[in-house]
Design a protein that fits this description.
single chain; 357 residues; alpha/beta; TIM Barrel; Lyase, Ornithine Decarboxylase, Chain A, domain 1; 2 domains; eight-stranded parallel β-sheet; six-stranded antiparallel beta barrel; 11 helices; 26% helix; binds pyridoxal-5'-phosphate
Length: 357
């Protein structure tokens, strides 16, 4: 092994979490979201493990092409659609289903001269106001798609702004707006992300689009992944590479930001912001070392982190360290970093990606 730092991917946990989606939305087809390299878990490896999915969703055309080239033959939906004139032809070549969310995309797809049908998704802006057609413009967009020879099956979708918060009335309003907009069109629909799957059963429709919950992190505010029956998929692991004793008053790391309040042991971990562990966690988080919690001290540097080993005489160099994952919820680390689990997962850098399976 060339590095102690590994993002270990538990493929059984991935399957378990997909089964959890199926249990919660038994009547819906599941489009597993594997954009951004499967939220940092490896898009192709994730798609292979979740081969039971009814389809996969990516954000960009290139991500879809890579999945196809990798042998995925299930439907692939491109959530951001496309931007360039040649893109409809690429969708046709690789059988990608673009999401059409704006007038420019609609124009491109309607002007395209290809005849083999490309299945498309029309996105409705039901209130998030990021991407999607205004409800008032949906009927006209649909009419344009229906008369375009190169357009195959048309499905409808929307995306929630605040479904993670079960007390927020915005999601109910979005569901109502979407349902009123698409009523009578008799097309397959998709509304629910992970939070929708977990917390808003009335949003399940024909297709659900979970991402985060597949990777075993909680999509709901105030509820842990464990409480929701999810299992962490990625465990960011490393090793304690040194244990040293320091005297009272000695400082540790860049900027000498931490001074030993007493004579004490300090451990050194091979992991840093060069691996995707946020520097903002300097003195803000804990790790699991040899199964025990220990506090980060001093600054997180590019390749190393120092930890306080007081009270842990049994811990020694060579012991395994968990930065997040099994036994140390990623939500806890994300909260300490002032961010969300999505960002931590997707920012793990390539040098630790060796164990995607
Ligand atoms: C359009 C769309 N659908 C579904 C998802 C999956 O969301 P989540 O990871 O919260 O389940 C995303 C992710 O951001 C998305 O952008």
């Amino acid at each position: 092994m060339t590095s102690c730092t590994v993002a270990r991917i538990n493929h059984d946990a991935l399957k378990h979490n997909l089964a959890r989606v199926r249990g919660l939305a038994p009547k819906s087809k599941v489009m597993s979201v594997v954009k951004a390299e499967g939220y940092g878990h490896g898009a192709l490896q994730t798609a292979r493990t979740l081969a039971d999915s009814d389809g996969f969703a990516v954000a960009r055309m290139g991500e879809g092409v890579s999945l196809r080239k990798g042998g995925v033959d299930a439907p692939i939906i491109v959530l951001s659609g496309f931007f360039y004139r040649d893109d409809p032809a690429i969708c046709r070549q690789y059988q990608l289903q673009p999401v059409i969310h704006c007038a420019h995309q609609l124009q491109l797809v309607c002007q395209d001269k290809g005849r083999d049908p490309v299945d498309v998704w029309l996105k409705v802006d039901s209130g998030m106001h990021r991407a999607g057609f205004d409800p008032d413009d949906v009927e006209e967009a649909l009419r344009a798609l229906r008369v375009t020879p190169g357009v195959g099956k048309i499905s409808l979708m929307t995306h929630f702004s605040s479904a993670d918060d079960l007390d927020d009335t915005a999601t109910g309003q979005q569901i109502e707006c979407f349902n009123a907009t698409v009523k009578g069109f008799k097309l397959e629909c998709s509304l629910a992300n992970s939070a929708g799957v977990m917390g808003w059963p009335e949003s399940h429709a024909e297709w659900v689009r979970p991402g985060l919950m597949l990777y075993g992190a909680s999509p709901l505010k105030g509820q842990s992944a464990e409480e929701l029956g999810l299992r962490p998929v990625m465990t960011l692991e490393s090793t304690l590479i040194d244990r040293r004793e320091f005297n009272r008053g000695e400082s540790v790391g860049y900027g000498k930001t931490w001074q030993c309040p007493e004579a004490m042991p300090i451990g050194l971990i091979e992991c840093g912001y060069g691996d995707g562990y946020p520097r903002v966690l300097s003195q803000q988080a804990e790790v699991l070392v040899g199964g025990h919690r220990a506090k980060i001290i001093g600054r997180v540097s590019m390749d190393m982190i120092s930890i306080d080993l007081r009270g842990l005489p049994e811990v020694s160099a060579g012991d395994p360290v968990i930065l997040w994952g099994e036994g140390l919820p990623i939500e806890e680390i994300a909260a300490a970093a002032g961010t969300i689990s999505y960002e931590l997962m997707t920012k793990v850098t390539t040098r630790v990606m060796a164990d995607r399976g």
